[in-house]
Amino acid sequence: MNGLDWAVLIAYFGVMVAIGVWSHKRVDTVGDYFTAGGRMPWWLSGISHHMSGYSAVLFTGYAGISYTYGVTSYFTWAFPIAIGVALGAKLFAPRLNRMRSRLQVASPLEYLKERYNLPTQQALAWSGVLLKIVDVGAKWAAIATLLSVFTGVTITQGIVITGAITAVYCTVGGLWADALTELGQFVIQLVAGLAMLIAALAKLGGVSSLWNVWDEPALHHHNHPTAGPYTAIFLVAYLFIKTFEYNGGMWNQAQRYMATGSARQAQRSATLSAALWFVWPAVLFFPMWISPLLVHAKKPDASDSYALLTERLLPHGLLGLVVVGFFSHTMAMCSSDANAIAAVVTRDIAPAVSRTARAWSTSVGLIAARVTTLLFLGLSMTVATQVNSPTFKDIITIVIKWVAGLVGPIAIPFLLGLIPRFRKSGPTAALVSWAMGLLAFYLLNYPVNDAISGGVNLEYQISVPVAISLFLFIVIGWIKPEDTPERDALLAKVNNDDPGAGSVALPEPAAAGDTVLGSSAVGD
């Protein structure tokens, strides 16, 4: 990087701070901080939902998969997400929006206390928070890895730099700041991604390379949808997992749907996100797929291949823009996760363990939300420094195996609990399916994996926990139905399209006079 690249990077950081300051003026309540007060336009919500699924892991871990296996990276990552979000546009997005507007909640998990019970809510909340600390830690490590390639700073220095800048804008502006930075990220990614595609095609001889390049010996088998450990079983498992995760199972995507003004707008938001997932990742991935023709990766997992490719193909200025794109991906995703975690901690966990938290006023609750955001960022940055330790092994292991394997048991009771078909699945089904899914993940990845020669295949490590959780959640609901009139009434609120259904507030975890969403808490 030269002076021009650094100027682009510093200008980007300045814009992030400005967005935070502007967004601060729109945040008066906890509801504004966590769900934008239900005033976010559907198109901004859709772009934000799409971009919150990216991080620098795409340009490190998935760049390594692309370098080694080719188009497998798209078909076992972006393609399942696109299908899952498209399904969720009808199945989950409207229900999540009604959950905010009709139950007057500011956290995705607030409704679980009434849908199941307090122990279920706390089990899902605590396990989800701990998983996200590790997940976001991996993302900090990914961006720091890229930063070290371009600038020479150490991994720890890179983690501190990116984390500190993220903390400034996301704690000040809440979800508005997250969404607006993700809009900026989309514009940056559009320019940088097209620049990389054009530069790669020019290097290989033009547009005809899109279909001619696959005959090159270095790209042997690079055009196979599944390859290596990323098998057809892995693809199907990932489809189930990502359907739950990207429709709100890890909470930050749920906030995007909750932030729109109506259930219909939430559905349009999800449809836009799904369309982007089908198309845009293929544009980003193509230079990665053909990277063996242009660079030689130095790391065993080829996680440095995209950074090396960028240095070779792009002039200064555009190189700085791509580095800005790396930052914006990770900073937007991590700030998005931090906001969701702060919502769960301050709205669900703190009131359950502290009588003082139950009496927080609006202003005190907002301060607690910002402090919790900072604490989460600090913990995840600490984990990031250990990402290559024997416990975690490497970035892509955490993102693919830990998150994919654990998100199902956490997300299934949360999302399926919104659907009337599963109304008989109550607290017993939720807790048992959650616990057995986590236990299955532990057994497969540690005792059983160590006992089997060659270990357990990756597709089973991630698919069995979600399969067990799904099976138990459904079957226990049949064997031991726990539907009650109160639970049926709650489900009617989030499933009823009748504009006259109105709103009903759940018991407030904060002070009785604290109106969470103000006048926005009305029926669709």
Automatic annotation (TrEMBL):
Residues covered by region (Disordered): 501-524
Protein's cellular compartments: Cell membrane
Membrane topology: Multi-pass membrane protein
Pfam families registered for this protein in UniProt: SSF
Alphabetic keyword roster: Cell membrane, Ion transport, Membrane, Sodium, Sodium transport, Transmembrane, Transmembrane helix, Transport
Domain of life: Bacteria
Transmembrane regions: 6-22, 42-62, 74-93, 123-143, 155-177, 186-207, 227-248, 269-290, 313-332, 364-383, 395-416, 428-448, 460-479
Family annotation (CDD domains): SLC5sbd_u1
Protein name from the UniProt record: Na+:solute symporter
Organism the protein comes from: Actinacidiphila acidipaludis
Keyword Transmembrane attributed: yes
Database matches in InterPro entries: Na/Glc_symporter_sf, Na/solute_symporter, Sodium:Solute_Symporter_SSF
Family listed: Belongs to the sodium:solute symporter (SSF) (TC 2.A.21) family.
Listed PROSITE patterns: NA_SOLUT_SYMP_3 (PS50283)
